[in-house]
Amino acid sequence: MPGLTIEAKGVGNADGQLEAAKIKFHPDAFAVEVAMEQQVAANQAASSKAQTTADQGVANADKAQSTADQGLSTAQAAGAAAAKDAAAAKTVNQRVSDLADYTTLAETQVYFRQNGSSLDAKAKADLDQLVSSTSSATGYVIEIAGYASSDGGTKYNQKLSDERAISAVHYLIENGNVPMQRIVVPAGYGATHPAAENTDRKGRALNRRVEVKFLVNKGLHESSQVAAVSF
After folding, report:
1. How far apart are CA 96 and CA 42, in angstroms?
2. Each residue of 114-141: pLDDT tens digit?
3. Is there a single domain that holds both residue 64 and residue 122?
4. How far is residue 231's CA from residue 217's CA, in Å, rounded to a whole number?
5. Where are the beta strands (DSSP E) in the chain?
6. HSE on the CB side for 185, CA within 13 Å?
7. What angle do CA 108, 25, 167 make, to 5 degrees?
8. Number of domains making up the chain
9. Which of 87, 103, 149, 172 could join 178 via S-S bond, C-beta 3.0 to 4.6 A?
10. Is 202 found in the same domain as 225?
């Protein structure tokens, strides 16, 4: 499943494949991925239905054109209907293909104390403001990325950045009433992609963060009137 991180333990078989004896994954991440897969499947189904309608309209137009006694006016009417259905199919197909094409509508960063993954009052207020400013938007997803400073080791920082991202997810779902399917599987990036140098206390504090981006799908939200904002 794309985007779902799993940990598998097992041994290799004679065919060079892994025979897993144990598979682990985060339940929250799995639930979000299932919801996103269902959303994509629903859009693809709508596209297929529209395409079938368009094909039938074109066939009807051809039949009308080849039957002389139906007259030119009948053929023109059928052709117009086919063109309309084809345009509808094209629109739906474009929206499906645009599912990976997003525009950042709003974003914010929240910060954490050293070795901590709990949101403080200011972080919660910033997330509340983000949700409030985008309450009228539709066709959106929320991307959440966690980071750490270089204070700890690689594995520790990875785990800490994951926990920080999950804290933001839980708050948005439980307190911001954000639907789970709107949140892309959160990711922790450890101490990579620092926002500032890790050479002093101020820089390390800026790197202990979670970045939250409110992304609007261009295909599903072409008429959004919400201005892009950053907190």
Report:
1. 10
2. 999 999 999 999 999 999 988 888 778 8
3. no
4. 21
5. 6-12, 18-25, 102-111, 140-146, 187-188, 209-217, 229-230
6. 20
7. 25
8. 2
9. 172
10. yes
Domain boundary among 52, 72, 99: 99
- The answer to whether residues 105 and 93 belong to one domain is no
Name residue 182's amino acid: R
User: Does residue 71 share a domain with residue 94?
Assistant: yes
Half-sphere exposure of 145 (CA within 13 A, CB side): 15
Task: Report how far apart, in Å, the C-alpha atoms of 231 and of each of 122, 125, 203 are.
Answer: 12, 11, 19
Check: pTM over 0.90? Answer yes or no: no
Q: What are phi and psi of 122, to 5 degrees?
A: -65, -40
CB 85 within 8 A of CB 210: no
- Domain hosting 94: range is 1-99
The C-alpha atoms of residue 24 and residue 121 are separated, in whole angstroms, by 33
Secondary structure (3-state) at 96: helix
Q: What is the CATH number of the domain that holds 107?
A: 3.30.1330.60
Identify whether the C-beta of residue 91 lies closer than 8 Å to the C-beta of residue 47: no
* Those residues with Cβ within 8 angstroms of residue 217's Cβ, 6 or more apart along the chain or in another chain: 98, 99, 101, 102, 139, 140, 141
Do 33 and 118 fall within a single domain?
A: no
pLDDT in tens, 39-74: 656 656 655 665 676 567 656 766 756 665 665 666
Main-chain phi, psi angles of 101, to 5 degrees: -115, 100
Cα-based angle 62, 68, 72 (whole degrees, multiple of 5): 75
